[in-house]
């Protein structure tokens, strides 16, 4: 029995196949909606932007799309005109076969950067596999696997909700941070839904939810040239259109989208190569959300905090120091710090002063695979949570043995 | 035969001793000038600031000082009122014994943060050791060793220059980034000179030179709560006072100060714990200095670049990606990239396109202890160089086994 996936969302078909870029593995995913979709995407903040992202940004100016093509094995980044033409060929081939405009195609890539783009293989793959698009459930799994690089498992999610008495579904796939083979940790997530929603409202909601979820995870602090989160909604659930943030249906949809993104984001962190722990960092009672967010990011991406986590060391000094480097107001004398696993939390710092606690007990808690670090800065009401991995000797080995 | 050091600068005496905070090692340094000095210091940018820095900042408002006291073993950070009183007691004790005002004392600390400050031991040490102040050369070495924590060697420098026909001397000591034992990598540098210089000119010069030298090194990307660079000049060389940036003597002094700071900064990088390589990163032909600086910092502190360097991997993709994350304008299509050791440089990227080169030869060059990475961004005339270490499995082990 397979779990529900993209193929369970009304009007969507997909496929995942081997086009020849990667040896022996699926490397081409296609997701198609039988009706035009409103669509929104967020892109990498890296100044070096891969060719497929530049093209997709152009195609999504009208906030519409109908098919998504993603190849793995070659990132099509730093590939110049040859790469641009390759991305365009992907869109053109798919559009032609499906009877769409080029602008209705979302293109994404992941893999090695700076290698010539294997346009011929991929265009051939698109031609061969578009006829195979289906809503049979295994196709969802094929697509989820076809976007992976060095990920060790496929990342999928599905959810449904009642909006104004109508059942609406949503599903997504993602890939994360395998960092051995490609030059960087590309993060991709593709989400589809049959919700009926206004394109501007979708756009805002996607940006807000990405900011709270995918933008709150860290594996090594870099963003890649290829990062993209794309959402396509075909309206086929026929719910009364969501066109105001005042609607109950908007609030439900927003919460479900955020939940699905968070689920996929957490799976990405869990699969961080060479990491041994999943760490949840919460900053409570900050002045404002931005302060809380910056503190979480500074702590979760500090190399010294990450090595301490690997070493099961309740090293509050490193957390305070990383917080002081966050570039926002931080008064450690107001800070309480708690550490533990999913069940127990131990206070190790009280208003900036070390607390006497059972060190052996805390070290035992920090052996767990899921760790919590909570800092209460007692300065306001804002709270943010982020997720990260530890930094292990394996990580360094993985990332040093790969040769361009 | 010992090299010249602080004790060779006219009017300065010093001492380094064991006060009892660290077991068996010297942990208290005192540097004294028989005449009042103009003085300037730069401090950590971390929002969490250690007590001695707060006190020194207050004391240096008048740009004058006459003695510097530094203890190792306890950072006196996150120690609250008890720590503030401890720092004040250090200044008061030294001032009283030397017949100075409290405001004439510079106080610095390095070591563990958040531990109660051992005021009694240190005050006792100051009382016991002030009478030992001497200009015998071994005292310079004692002082250089007394400020170390997990550094593996003492960092010293000396230089002299002719200003308006008069011989002027300058000497400095520094400590770097031993990261096993303390919670963080405190960087301290103390420089003394007998130059006769206007306090405002000194202030500006110190800030500019620190920005080009100590601020261009990275070991793990964090700044500590205790970082401080302090410079004291007693004027006893009796050169015509430097009071304008138009003077030839100013230009010579500035260049010599920068050179000494760079020397000490490079020694700090060389002693980065668990690092196996010294890497020199240069960005050439950038739009402006700030752009060049940000690119150098982004590349030199990228975890993925650092692991590639450990693995002897000429991985230009990671360097381009880190540059794209620098937060400044960067067009990889204009970038040339060169890698090599101190003697050979090989072009690996030409205007953003990979160059065919002898990979085995480059990998052999990257085995060297001193590596150069040069990126020409072909967008202007500005150039900056920075220094960093690689990220090794040893680094992770060191930083994970320490337990608070």
Supply database-style keywords.
L-amino peptidase D-ALA esterase/amidase; 8-stranded mixed β-sheet; 27% strand; 404 residues; homodimer; 2 domains; 11 helices; alpha+beta; Ubiquitin-like (UB roll); 7-stranded mixed β-sheet
Main beta sheet of chain A: strand number and arrangement? 8 strands, mixed
The CATH C-level name of the largest domain in chain A is Alpha Beta
Beta-strand residue fraction of chain A: 25-35%
| Helix content class of chain A | 25-40%
Measure the end-to-end span of chain A: 41 Å
Classify the fold: give the CATH topology of the largest domain in chain A: L-amino peptidase D-ALA esterase/amidase
Structural write-up:
Two copies of one chain form a homodimer. Chain A is of the alpha+beta class. Chain A folds into two domains: 6-270, L-amino peptidase D-ALA esterase/amidase (4-Layer Sandwich), CATH 3.60.70; 278-401, ArgJ beta chain, C-terminal domain (Ubiquitin-like (UB roll)), CATH 3.10.20.340. In chain A, 32% of the residues lie in helices and 27% in strands. Chain A contains eleven helices and 15 strands. Chain A has helices spanning 51-59, 80-98, 119-129, 137-146, 199-212, 248-270, 289-300, 303-310, 316-324, 359-365, 393-401; strands at residues 12-17, 28-43, 64-74, 105-112, 155-163, 166-175, 188-193, 217-218, 228-233, 278-286, 336-340, 345-350, 353-354, 370-376, 382-389. In chain A, strands 1, 2, 3, 4, 5, 6, 7 and 9 form an eight-stranded mixed sheet that branches. In chain A, strands 8-15-10-14-11-12-13 form a seven-stranded mixed sheet. In chain A, helix 5 (199-212) runs parallel beside helix 6 (248-270) and helix 7 crosses helix 9. The two termini of chain A are 41 Å apart. Residues 180-184 of chain A have low confidence and may be disordered. Chains A and B meet through helix 8, helix 9, strand 13 and helix 11 of A and helix 8, helix 9, strand 13 and helix 11 of B.
């Amino acid at each position: 029995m397979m779990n529900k996936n993209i193929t369970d969302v009304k009007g969507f078909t997909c496929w995942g196949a081997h086009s020849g870029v990667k040896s022996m593995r699926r490397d081409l995913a296609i997701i198609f909606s039988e009706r035009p979709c409103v669509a929104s995407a967020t892109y990498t903040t890296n100044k070096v932007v891969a060719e497929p992202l530049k093209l997709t940004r152009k195609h999504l100016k009208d906030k519409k799309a109908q098919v998504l093509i993603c190849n793995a094995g070659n990132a099509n980044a730093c590939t110049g005109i040859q790469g641009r033409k390759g991305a365009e060929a992907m869109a053109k081939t798919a559009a032609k076969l499906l009877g769409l405009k080029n602008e209705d195609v979302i293109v994404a890539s992941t893999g090695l950067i700076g290698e010539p783009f294997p346009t011929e293989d991929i265009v051939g793959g698109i031609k061969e596999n578009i006829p195979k698009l289906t809503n049979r459930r295994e196709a969802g799994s094929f697509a989820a696997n076809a976007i992976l690089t060095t990920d060790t498992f496929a990342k999928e999610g599905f959810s449904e909700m009642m909006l104004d008495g109508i059942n609406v579904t949503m599903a997504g796939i993602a890939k994360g941070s395998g960092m051995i083979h490609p030059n960087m940790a590309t993060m991709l997530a593709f989400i589809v839904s049959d919700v009926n929603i206004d394109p501007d409202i979708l756009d805002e909601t996607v940006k807000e939810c990405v900011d709270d979820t995918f933008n709150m995870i860290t594996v090594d602090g870099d963003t890649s040239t290829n990062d993209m989160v794309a959402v396509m909604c075909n309206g086929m659930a026929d719910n009364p259109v969501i066109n105001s943030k005042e609607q109950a249906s908007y609030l439900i949809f927003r919460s479900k989208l955020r939940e699905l993104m968070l689920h996929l984001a957490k799976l990405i962190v869990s699969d961080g190569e060479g990491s041994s722990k999943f760490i949840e960092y919460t900053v409570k009672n900050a002045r404002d959300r931005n302060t809380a967010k910056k503190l979480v990011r500074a702590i979760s991406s500090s190399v010294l905090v990450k090595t301490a986590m690997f070493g099961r060391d309740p090293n509050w000094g490193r957390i305070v120091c990383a917080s002081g480097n966050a570039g926002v107001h931080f008064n450690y004398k107001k800070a309480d710090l708690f550490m533990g696993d999913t069940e127990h939390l131990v206070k190790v710092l009280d208003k900036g002063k070390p607390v006497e606690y059972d060190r052996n007990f805390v070290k035992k808690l920090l052996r767990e695979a899921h760790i919590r670090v909570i800092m209460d800065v007692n300065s306001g009401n804002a709270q943010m949570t982020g997720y990260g991995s530890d930094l292990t000797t394996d990580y360094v080995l993985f990332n040093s043995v790969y040769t361009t």
